[in-house]
Amino acid sequence: MSRPAEAVQRVIKAYDVRGLVGVDIDEAFVADVGAAFARLVRDSLDQPATQVVIGHDMRASSPALSKAFADGVLAQGLDVVHIGLASTDQLYFASGLLDCSGAMFTASHNPAAYNGIKLCRAGAKPVGRETGLAAVAEEVIAGVPGYDGPRGSESERDVLADYGDFLRSLVDIGGARPLRVAVDAGNGMAGHTAPAVLGSIASLTLKPLYFELDGEFPNHEANPLDPANLVDLQAFVLETKADIGLAFDGDADRCFVVDERGQAVSPSAVTALVAARELNREIGATVIHNLITSRAVPELVGERGGTAVRSRVGHSYIKALMAETGAIFGGEHSAHYYFRDFWGADSGMLAALHVLAALGEQDRPLSEMMADYQRYEASGEINFTVTDAPEIVDSVLQALGGRIHAIDHLDGVTVDLGDGRWFNIRMSNTEPLLRLNVEARTAEEVTEIVDEIGGYITSGARAST
């Protein structure tokens, strides 16, 4: 059955499939996506697929949608391995372990009414617009051809314990001092994976918060990137006298860190810390960072003898660069952390293990330890609703004139204002938004730049309406 192009392209995005259940996404639609994805990987010239592993999060719609997707795959002659409830990085682990393509049903940090699919090829290789999603969308629009061969078969496999064993094998935490670890699962999949990964480590005492799996997210949104959703963990760290707090998003592939004072730790500082640990293990290795990660990251990588490589924002770009360069590690401002030893895929839980190991190997509190990696102040991502983004960006650049020291267009526009001050403006892939990120040596400088650039953007937005 063919489908309207506009409706399909609204849901099949640059990095994944995502939309409102019953409005944008239903069982018939995901069955078509499953069939199109099966054809894509089955007919691949370099690595033809014979099976697809499927996992899902705790949303009420996820089991039925994942079953419908499986029906589409089976109809194209491929086998399906169901791993059931899983975090996204647990699905990547299964894809790597079984060396097969994968599909994870989740809408990550989006509200309960949403759901979606994250797709990968064998070995957790990313599937984005340029690497297969556009082809999947075209087939769903045109109508997926049938298949004359035999239907595939289904099986189930529980990989949770294997996933936990594998992550712990990558980070030596055996000699660490005792730590009290507060974990906010946000009613998401970390409530399933954190006990399996962290619960068996003798030096750790887990302090669980919102571990009950509930796709309605009754306590707060499962999006720790929004400071409002860290408030409960920050209070919980102080209440329990924890040494560290960890917050995960809905599908538990991102990890955010809170120190013993209840203060949020920059994901850029976590990137720098993990990069330093990985470079200690492999001197001269390559580390990927996206272009709005703190400049402290490439500075530290260079000082430790490594090679820092900048990437566009987005997991498909970073994973592609990880494969191309053989990088040992990659980090994003959004708390996605990528590891060569994890098939180049991202794992918030693996990043958490690195931070816990680093903290446990020395006697300082987390706040003092992380100060070694926090060289600049940052604004975080600030969004502006606009109607003519290119025109507004041009007006910002014109207003700054000769004050611009350097400029590049790797992803949006990055402007170097000198003396450690820079900002990036980039357009959203899915919404009429301009995203602003600013970094400088002091918080006062950050505020000044945000106020100035934000003023240019909002005045331009008013002028263009």
TrEMBL record:
Q: Which Gene3D superfamilies match?
A: Alpha-D-Glucose-1,6-Bisphosphate, subunit A, domain 3, Alpha-D-phosphohexomutase, C-terminal domain
InterPro entries given for it? A-D-PHexomutase_a/b/a-I (IPR005844), A-D-PHexomutase_a/b/a-I/II/III (IPR016055), A-D-PHexomutase_a/b/a-II (IPR005845), A-D-PHexomutase_a/b/a-III (IPR005846), A-D-PHexomutase_C (IPR005843), A-D-PHexomutase_C_sf (IPR036900), Alpha-D-phosphohexomutase_SF (IPR005841)
GO terms of molecular function: metal ion binding; phosphomannomutase activity
The EC number of this protein is 5.4.2.8
Q: Which UniProt keywords apply?
A: Isomerase, Magnesium, Metal-binding, Phosphoprotein
Per UniProt, residues of the Alpha-D-phosphohexomutase alpha/beta/alpha domain are 11-131, 162-262, 272-376
Give any Pfam family that matches: PGM_PMM_II
Which BP terms does GO give this entry? carbohydrate metabolic process
**Listed CDD domains:** PMM_PGM
User: Which residue ranges does the record assign to the Alpha-D-phosphohexomutase C-terminal domain?
Assistant: 381-453
Judged by the first EC level, this protein's enzyme class is isomerase
Cofactors that this protein relies on: Mg(2+)
Record has Isomerase as a keyword: yes
Similarity comment: Belongs to the phosphohexose mutase family.
The molecule here is called Phosphomannomutase
